[in-house]
User: What shape does this take?
Amino acid sequence: MRALPPQWRIGGVWKPLLLFHVLTGKKRFMELTRLIQSATQRMLTLQLRELEADGLNIRHVYAEVPPRVEYEATPLARTLASVMLGLREWGERYRADQQNLPPMGVHCDATTPAAKRKASSKTMQRETRTLTQD
Assistant: This one.
């Protein structure tokens, strides 16, 4: 394991998003790339490797054709669930109060059509319930 200060282990743009998604259950690599469309596959691969090296996710490789890879949160990462939810709630309040913007769905970006945003809002609610039940 690398000798990094604890705050750097989940720093950056993509690591918190990746952690949030793997905290809801096992995710395949392509699922993660679809959930985080604005990141390149290379960047997600690098960030997932760093999270694995820091002991925050487990990479499962299945010897199949085509190869299947799944990522799962470790027990250490699960201790961050309440912190991640708190950060998301703070961000939503800041967005509404300071920027006068509507709440943003988990998978929502500027290019997502309204119908998909509505569906992603339901996904966000389901993922929030999953995180709070653990």
Summary: The longest helix spans residues 114-133.
